Amino acid sequence: MEEVVRRLSDQYILSSTPKPSFESLDSEPPQQPQQVNIPLKSPT
């Protein structure tokens, strides 16, 4: 069981690292969809 906890801890640390990057990406997606909507409206 200790090995499983250690593995989970390792995964948690790895998951915690990309979390900050995910937040930054979450803030960028809103701006990307708007730019994609503009080009989509042009062809329409």
* CA distance, first residue to last residue: 59 Å
**Morphology call:** rod-shaped
Helical content band: over 70%
- Count of helical regions: 3
Number of discrete domains = 1
Whole-angstrom Rg: 19 Å
- Total beta strand runs: 0
Mean pLDDT: 60
The major sheet is characterized as: none
Give the structural class.
mainly alpha
What sequence of helices (H) and strands (E) makes up the elements? HHH
Region (Disordered): 1-44
Biased composition (Polar residues): 33-44
Provide an overview of this structure:
Residues 33-44 have a biased composition (Polar residues). Residues 1-44 are annotated as: Disordered. The protein is mainly alpha-helical. The chain has one domain. It has three helices and no strands. It has helices spanning 2-16, 18-27, 31-41. It is rod-shaped. The relative contact order is 0.08.
Summary of the model, kept short:
This protein is mostly helical. It has helices at 2-16, 18-27, 31-41.
SSE diagram, text form:
Blueprint: H1 2-16, H2 18-27, H3 31-41
Question: Which terms summarize this structure?
Answer:
44 residues; mainly alpha; rod-shaped
